[in-house]
Amino acid sequence: MSSQLLSLGAWYFLPNLVTGWVQTVYYRTTVRAGDPYPQPGSQRHERHRRNIFILVILTYLLYTIYEVDWELQREGDFYTHLGVVLDADEKRINSRFRRLTILYHPDKLQNPSPEQLAASSNYYVHLKNARDTLVDPAKRYAYERFGPSMLEWKNCITKLDYITVGLKQLVPYYLLSALTLTVMSFMRYNEYGRYWQFFSIAALLIFEAHTISRPTFPLPLRLLNPLTPLLNHAPYLPYQAIALARRIALSVFIAVSQIAPQLRRAAPVADTQQSLSGLYALANELDGDAARLLRLETVPFLDDEELEARLKRQTKAWLVQNEIRNDKGVDQAIRAVLARRMEAEMEGSGTTE
User: Are 257 and 61 in contact (CB under 8 A)?
Assistant: First the structure.
């Protein structure tokens, strides 16, 4: 439980920290020596940081899924502890338990220390609980769907008894989840993917209700479990699939809440391009209006070719002169020439005197 809390808490400080490290390494390996790095706040720097941040979030999402799967496999289950397959019958389970009794029964130890005797006794009790659970059809059904917690349920005899108790524990979990999402939506904390969050909670509830109420394993497990030996992986039990699905849903919620704002920040680029396109269209429209006004102003000269040619020459000369007058270089050159002339005239007048 503590490792899960630590993993969930890491969502809120680890991605930014790792993103900074990765971006620094990225610049050191891709930017040529002597070239400046993109400055923080620049468009290029922010684009790189956004892409790296999204990559870090997706990587950590995959890691959290692997982590919970590894924890489930490390804890094991009654089938792996007894060393039997999922479809083992009562005879096979009892036969395997007798072999394990020879190996792990406390009476088989020779001159054990108190610690060894206690550890052996606890492990043998665990194996006996596993055998007793799997040879009882109702308990076996409940264990596969609810996990080891069903051993603590009292006054449960039939499958219906276990399903009833399981549903009573299931409803508060999803009511609290839905209430939490509602409060977060009201406080505008989960503005991104709000619809999909509620949809995922509903889909997860349907999957779990279907899993604990059906006499067979759910279809995803029936398709996946035959492939697990190829991956050197133990088959999944329904309660393990439910725990994995819950953790994946929670991790995806957090990942989406962090990735969506980054994707939204990229929207102004598209908005800028759209604005530029609008300005370009407006400029073309104004250019067309100016051309139409010019044609309207030159209507009186259309019938007289001489006047039209004269107007063109004068307009061209005015444009050239206006461009020259407005050019700073030309203006400075004219001022320099005038200054030299004034100096020459002053020197000439002084010599005459």
Answer: no
Which of 45, 75, 105 is the last residue before a domain boundary?
Answer: 75
Q: Is residue 88 part of a domain?
A: no
Q: Is the separation of the CB atoms in 33 and 39 below 8 Å?
A: no
131 inside domain: no
Final residue of a structural domain among 41, 75, 109: 75
Number of other CB atoms surrounding residue 239 within 10 Å: 23
Strand (E) positions, 16-93?
Answer: none
Query: What are 8-63's pLDDT values in tens digits?
Result: 667 777 888 888 899 889 888 888 877 888 888 888 888 888 999 999 999 988 98
Determine the Cα–Cα distance for residues 64 and 251; give it in Å rounded to an integer.
7
pTM of the model as a whole: 0.68
Give the Cα separation of 201 and 178 in Å (integer). Answer: 7
Do 52 and 23 meet the contact criterion of CB atoms below 8 Å apart? Answer: yes
Q: Is 176 contained in some domain?
A: no
Query: Which value, to the nearest 10 degrees, does the dihedral of the CA atoms of residues 268, 274, 277, 278 take?
Result: -110
The contacts of residue 249 (CB under 8 Å, 6+ apart) are 200, 201, 204
Residue 219 burial (CB count, 10 A)? 10
Count structural domains, the chain: 2
Return the number of other C-beta atoms located less than 10 Å from residue 106's C-beta: 16
What is the phi-psi region of residue 42: left when phi exceeds 0, alpha when psi lies from -120 to 50, beta otherwise? beta
Task: Answer whether residue 99 is part of any domain.
Answer: no
**C-alpha to C-alpha distance for 114 and 76, rounded to whole angstroms:** 26
Enclosing domain of residue 329: 300-353
Over residues 105-136, the pLDDT tens digits come to 888 777 778 888 888 889 999 999 999 999 99
